[in-house]
Fold this protein.
Amino acid sequence: MKVVDGIQMKMLDQTAMEEYKIPGIILMEQAGMAVTEEIMKEIQRQENKRVMIICGLGNNGGDGFVAARHLFQRGIPVKVRIIGDIARLNGDAKSNYDILKKLKTDIKTMLDFQDIQKLSDELAHSGIVVDAICGTGLNRGADGLWKELIRVINQCGKYILSIDIPSGVSASTGNILDTAVRANKTVVLQLPKVGNINFPGADYSDEMIVKDIGIPKEAIERNNLNISLITETMIRNILPRRKNDTHKGNYGKAYIVAGSMGMTGAAMLTCEAVFRSGAGLLKVAIPQSLNSIMETRLIEAITVPLPELKKGVVGISDIEKIIKTMKESDVIAVGPGSGQTRELEEVLRNIFEEATIPIVLDADALNSLAHRLDMLKLLKSTAVLTPHIGEMARLINIPIEEIQRNKIQIAMEFAQKWKVILILKGARTVIASPEGKVFINTTGNPGMATAGSGDVLTGIVTGFLAQGIQPLEAALAAVYMHGAAGDRAAVRIGEYGLMAGDIVVELPHAIKEIVGK
Ligand SMILES: NC(=O)C1=CN([C@@H]2O[C@H](COP(=O)(O)OP(=O)(O)OC[C@H]3O[C@@H](n4cnc5c(N)ncnc54)[C@H](OP(=O)(O)O)[C@@H]3O)[C@@H](O)[C@H]2O)[C@@H](O)CC1
Ligand SMILES: Nc1ncnc2c1ncn2[C@@H]1O[C@H](COP(=O)(O)OP(=O)(O)O)[C@@H](O)[C@H]1O
Ligand SMILES: [K+]
């Protein structure tokens, strides 16, 4: 499913109006009717059926006027309060305001703090509050009267339904510009906005429903929208069923270079996830003093013990051996628990120069690349980078907060500039491709914020790549399945005690649920 930012949504409205000749007032009518339908559902559930609709001066307010008219026609007690000077209403919103006025509905404007106080008193008698203050047109933080209005709405304790997006949430990023309405439900118009999906905005509504407002599918396709939600159907189409007449050689040879003294577990988790995602064979290069630990725990993998520079750390003399094994493999992953050393940087340089297979880079491999991003220009094959926000900050030397505020843009620019697939991990992982496509993932839960979760993801991407799944598709499927496995684990044991190993345990079940076998 496509997701849009504020600008893309405006473009889409324009396309519908100018090229498909659908008058804006019809789109607004459909939007208002969709909202009315949802209000009516809630009215069935509420004892107090009085509705208060709070409108801004833009088209979001216009949607509110339409909903008010339909409720009025159905005999629902409805009041409309407008924030700001109605002389500034224009276009379709003004037309709908004029109709409402004619119908003699209870409609007033709020121009000062006293008016907001009056609203506060009135809200005590309302059952449902509709937030039609502002949608995709938010252009600054809510201050003054708006801030007070939002405070009053948030404190009224009534059922709150937002139109399109809770007012105050940026549709383009999900950031809260100062303060925002906290809604019970949001009726999202036509397509989800980034702000409905990304945190913190996504947390400002308990529930969300997407409603069609009649923008033609063709118009949506024509706009070449670059952001999508990862859906179950997408993943089902990516992960093939295994054919009967096959052997382990058909499911690929994965090669993992991971682990160092004190971090053997990271390598272990990655390797287990490789097998649990269906790869046929796995070799793991590990400093030789850690080899016996690895062999004891992971009996299915072939270990390639590497001579050590110092105890537990891979040395430069190992490069030839690493490259040789790489050339016999279908995918290589480097980094989980590797420890950050000059040697690792050298290993990476050689891998980049020699590899013709997909490369997965995580953890210490990413840290080794910080300040040396130019090395990515050596790549002859596709690389999938899996940084969390902290690693990303180090990689591009931008503060964590700034990346957090602008995840999609930053991920997109990075992937395009360096021609890699970027998995920017976190709550709502963002995946970006060199072609400028962006995907947002909604599986996963805070239970996964625990040591080793990322190592598991690296194993899953590697496992899917080993099986010949195309790099972008492998990344999408891995991120989705990783989250889905985490969600299964959370259902079974809760979020508190969830450990990375639980994600590995649930992974095959999560995959079976999608693939059917
Ligand atoms: N044809 C279409 O386009 C369709 C659009 N649709 C609907 O329209 C919505 C988009 O409408 P929009 O573009 O008119 O902007 P909207 O969200 O109403 O906000 C603009 C208003 O907010 C104000 N304002 C902003 N920030 C503020 C602040 N911090 N503090 C104070 N004021 C602030 C801003 O004031 P100004 O900057 O002018 O002073 C202006 O008055 C969209 O989400 C969907 O619901 C549907 O009907 C389908 C058809
Ligand atoms: N709140 C959350 N919601 C969804 N997924 C999460 C959440 N917290 C963490 N995750 C996922 O867990 C993984 C954590 O990775 P990372 O921070 O690299 O862990 P580690 O370095 O310990 O292996 C990422 O894939 C991330 O998307
Ligand atoms: K709104």
